[in-house]
Each structure stands twice: as structure tokens, then as C-alpha cells.
Amino acid sequence: MTTFDSVAIIGLGLIGGSLARDLAALGVRVMAYDPDATRVAAAIRTNVVAGALPESLEGIGDVDVIVLATPVDEAIDILRRVAPRATRAKLITDVGSTKARIVETAHAVGIGDRFVGAHPMAGDHRSGWEASRMGLFVDAPVYLCTNRDVSAEALRLAHAFWRRLGSHPEEMAADQHDLKLAWTSHLPHMVSASLALALARAGVDRGYLGPGGRDVTRLAGSSPEMWTAIALDNAAALEAAMQETEKEIASLRAAIKRADREELNERLGAARRWMEREGGNGANGAGHGNQGQS
Amino acid sequence: MTTFDSVAIIGLGLIGGSLARDLAALGVRVMAYDPDATRVAAAIRTNVVAGALPESLEGIGDVDVIVLATPVDEAIDILRRVAPRATRAKLITDVGSTKARIVETAHAVGIGDRFVGAHPMAGDHRSGWEASRMGLFVDAPVYLCTNRDVSAEALRLAHAFWRRLGSHPEEMAADQHDLKLAWTSHLPHMVSASLALALARAGVDRGYLGPGGRDVTRLAGSSPEMWTAIALDNAAALEAAMQETEKEIASLRAAIKRADREELNERLGAARRWMEREGGNGANGAGHGNQGQS
Known about the structure:
Two copies of one chain form a homodimer.
Chain A: E1 6-10, H1 14-25, E2 29-33, H2 37-45, E3 51-52, E4 65-68, H3 72-82, E5 91-94, H4 100-108, E6 116-120, E7 141-146, H5 152-164, E8 168-171, H6 174-201, H7 211-217, H8 224-233, H9 235-257, H10 261-277
Parallel strand pairs in A: 1-2, 1-4, 2-3, 4-5, 7-8
Antiparallel strand pairs in A: 6-7
Helix pairs in contact in A: 3-4, 6-9
């Protein structure tokens, strides 16, 4: 059974809203809840969403697939409320940038067999229903993370769900996912935000930066609420990655301070070699990427 | 006298090569020297350069304008050699990302009246003759920095030179320029390189990053030689800016470590407000920008 006719989406932000648009276009009946009722109203008015779910989530027992598309901390709270009500759902999933804790929670609340956590590597630094759009997941890698007690049916359905949106699902252990994302996504976000904060404190407006400096600071425009939740959910791995980056800056700075031309040239050369090596699975590979919900 | 018929360019990299292409197209006679003779040969073959200058720079006394387009440390050495030979030049200029030391040097070697240092805010992370192209300076801000003893004629000619290339010259004190650029250009470069180095050390290939992480690390692909010279020439201001950024990362990290949701949300919110404020002279203003030779 890899088909589904109805999907409930909790949270109509960039990711939830874009999912709703694509699913509606595919003929799927989409029900939705968002604490901001104007988002749901807009989605119903444009025929993206068929009906609103109440805050109690009553009625969520009637759909085939449930998607939690909220910041990761809220998703964990909502999952606890969804579990006893999700009587008919064949698949319960989410779209958060961290996976270990929500996968554990699914097991703890008794839906480990039907929960397949997902992390689509799609999005940009904008957020909200207004930024949502069709086709956001086309060619995006999507990491799938599960408990050991996941059913083969739920896993097959998760693959089918994301493939239907044009993306490339790939299974990965939740811990491995979170460690990988700490470096490839969460760290660049925190570095970008830190640079923005240093510039703000120095009174340097962004308008004075050129295209290079703008690139480095772009991620600082991401949603604070979403990234606070991600950082706290992946704290240990992210802290370690941030500390290593501080060391690299301090080390470059020390070389500048002692006018060590050779060392500086060696380090900047190593940075460029890393850039040129590319590696990973390449820019278009299914394993690449991580923009997460950035 | 704001006209010129002949220009000597020392260094046919991205900036020097692009200048040569534009000037040749404007009918200016371009002479050039580059330690890599194949660059000069390629430029002559394509009718961009009219003739090669020898390493001794003999013949440089015959041109109206002399442009030093090498890394900033080399430019200072070359300026000392150029000064006694630049008998006819009405303008001697450079294109480096730091200005205080070269402007001082020009005064010290007795050409302060004819030297107008320039910093065109154009370029990208690529470098070399191969990356050079026509139109690179169109609409780019160009900072002009001089000694007090600069002649009105040299300054007028410097304005005319850059306006003829389509760019927007703006005078600025050399010290002020270097302090500004430490924050808006040199700091983002060092942060981007440091992140690349941390990722390299952790064994994370760039192919695993999404568009966001790729943006943050892009500047790490810049020329190590050029950026070593810039960093050492602007060491004090750059060190201070790097240290402030380390503090911001450490401070975010501490908030994550103690799971201080409110503090983290406040800081990421401040970073986003900085992004949204823009300010400066805006993306298209003459005072914006700094990509320098990045």
C-alpha cells in the first residue's frame, strides 16, 4: 500500500505550505492546522487546503498521512498529542532539521511502527506561508530516519510520498543525520548569524557589504524561532562544531598577528583546496545538500 | 587634462586583465607586464595588449597612466621601482584592497603628487587572466585614496579614468578605507575561510553542503596569495574584527550549552533585524559594496 488520498499538515509555513500546494495539485485532499488562522484561510481560499483542523486536532484520525511541519520543539509536543488520535494514519512524518529526538519520541508514544521522520533539503532563508511555493522539493534530497520497529509499509509509503513530490528519499540513522547536519547546515547558520551580530555591534550596515560579504551573512536572515529550536535540539554536536570554528578563526588571527606569511598562505591555500575538491556526492547527488529549512 | 592615450598595467590577473580588455576596447594603447609571460602573450594575441614591458619595466616612462594590479605587498615593492622611471606619467594608481601603506609609500618615494590609490569594488572569488572580462567595473564603486600633496590634475584624471570604465569613484581617507574594509570585506573572507578549514578538518566535503552552506563558504575559494597580503597589510583592524566575531560565536555557543532559549532567540532575532535593515547606501549606492578583489 503505497498510496494515500488524504494528508493532514500541521503548520503552514514555508515547508508545510509548499507541501500543501504540491499535494493539492496532485489531487490529494489536504487538511491543515496552523495557530495563525489567516494562513489556513488563505490556503482554503486558494483551494490548496480542503478543510481546517481545529486546535484540538479532532478529525486527524481520518487521514492517511500526517505531516508535522512546525519548528522541531513544537513538533515533539504535537507528536504526543497526535499519537492517540492518529487511528487510521498509515504514515506519520515530520520535516525538521534534527531527527534523533523526534524519532525517539515517536517510539516512546507508541507510534514507532508508523513514524518515519523526514528532512527535506529544500527551502531558503525566507519563511512563512507567503514564501511557500510549488515545486520546492523537486530534486531535493530527503533524509528518512526511523525507529527499529518501523513497519515496512510505513517506510515504503514514506519513500512513495517524497518521490511523488519529485524529491530523492534516502534512509539514514537519526544520530548520524544529526551529526552530519550539525556540520553541514547548523554550523554555517550559526557562523553566518555570528558574523551578522559582530557587524551589527560594530555599526556596519549590510548595505556596505559587497556580494561576497552578502553571501556569508545571508543565512542570518533565517527564522530565529526555527533555528533556536534546531540549535537546542542538536546542542552537543553543534557546540563542538562551533568550537572548532572558533579555533580556526583564532588560529588565522594569531598568524596575522605574528605576520606569519607562510602559515597564513598555507591555511588559506588549504581552504581553497577544500573548495575545489567539492567531493561529497557532488552538487547534484542525492546525498548532497542541506539547506534544511534555512 | 583628463585624457590619457596610453596605460601600463603591471599584473594581468582578474583586475588587471579586465582593465586591459576595457581600455583596449576604448582605443587606449595598453602596455603590460606580468611575471607569467604566457598571460602577456595571450593578451597580445587577442589584441588586448599592444606590447610587453620587460621585467626591468624599461619603457614605463612613455605612458600617461601606470596601474599596479598585483597583490598589495608586491604593489608596494613595485611602486618603489616604478617611481624613478615614471617620468611622463600623469597618474600612478593601484587596485589593492588596502590603501594606507601604499599611499604612504607613494609619498615616501616622491610621487605623492601623482599617486591616487584606487580600490574598485568589483571581482569575484575567481582570479587570474582566465577570469578577466570586459565590463567588470560597470556600476562598481571605486574608492580613491591620496596623500595630502596630491595634485588636482592627478585626482581629476583618476576620476575620469574610472568613470570611463563605467564605475563610480568616491574619495575616502586611506585609514578610514582600511578600517571599513576590515569589517565589510576582509572579515567575511577570513570567517568564510575559517569555516571551510573547520569543515575540512572534520572531513566534511563541500558537496554535502546545501545552497546556504555553500554561500557561507564561497569566499574560501579566493586567491591565498592575494588574501595573505591583504590580511597582513590590514592586520590590526582585521584582528580586532576577527576577535569580535569569535566572541559572538562563543557567546551563541554558550547560550546553546546552557539551553538558554530566550537568549538564543534574542540573538538570532538581532541578526535577522540587521539583515532586514540593509542600510548603508543600499545595494546600488555608490558607497556600498566591497567585494574588492575577492
